[in-house]
Amino acid sequence: MLTTPEAPRAVRLAPARLSPGDVVRVGGAGLRARPLRVFLSALGIAIGIAAMLGVVGISASSQEDLNRQLSALGTNLLKVSPGQTLFGEGSHLPAEAEGMIGQIAPVTSVTAIGNTSAKVYRNDHIPEGQTGSISVQAVRLDLLKDVGATVAGGAWLNEATHRYPAVVLGSRAADRLGVAGAGPDQRVWLGGQWFTVVGVLAPVPLAPELDTSALVGWPVAEERLGFDGYATTIYTRAAERQVVAVRDVLAATANPENPNEVEVSRPSDALAAKQATDATLNALLLGLGGVALLVGGVGVANTMVISVLERRAEIGLRRSLGATRGQIRLQFLAESLLLSAIGGVGGVALGIGVTAAYATSQGWPSIVPVWAMAGGVVATLVIGGVAGFYPAVRAARMSPTEALATS
Fold this sequence. Notes:
By secondary structure, this protein is α+β, with helices and mostly antiparallel strands.
């Protein structure tokens, strides 16, 4: 019995799969075909990322600088000053306040300044009203180390000079008086007599009131300037772990009869509060960075939509050669992600550069959190995915005949 050969069966070939490397190469080829448009779109993304990373980096650098300052100056300084009576009148600290505060066990040092009624001028020809808002303070010899101050020029008062007409100027006081430095030929008209400028202080972060003061010895202030001897500010250092406990008892210790007339503050808290006020500005700048990032995302979407319209012939040809809709969609989504990644990496590099440049100019340590850099790149990829999704779907929906016919 003769048998006839069976007809060959039709074999359906599965579409070729694209490896991750193929996807990257195909997406990169699409970007290389339009370098200028790609550059401008990536630049929009980079500016947004750089803006946000710069805000975070500069804030982190400023915070680190503040922490280093506080570590160097100490956060255990407390300031005691007189408040007001129940009738709203000014009060004063008892003469024994310094000694009583010094008896508190965790207290390590106590010093004081006292405000005088004297005025200081550059010379004796200056009109009386032009004081430059400079106060004249009587000071103890141990003030310098207790408040963390340093002498920028000349020397601090000592056992000899604090009994004679010698003065140390705060940094801003020296500028207002036009005193460039200390020396035997530098004199100011203080309290109706000449005082020799023996020193000029550097700015004092924990006691900024000293920056606009002329500082004289306690004995000479009582003898020549009519100083009543009452301290107007007492600076106290306490053991680090006992600062809060000491602060709670300072008012009652300084003035047992009227503790409500005593004000106690922690200067380091003021510095930290000043730093915290920058949060509002940082939020504003982050918002502007977000707007820039959104604009960059719109640029990516625009680039990809135009790319789909310009490359209909390519889409039709690839579909005719067997590319699936999923592969077309993956190709354009990969282009969008690559474009965003280029902008994101460039923005991170630019943000690091901006942070480093600004921090260096301010003398701060340059710090950019790792989470901010990683978050910047992730944000760009998310934006790239969102911006490229519609163009990718639109390209995938084109039939081969439609794409070739409209090209």
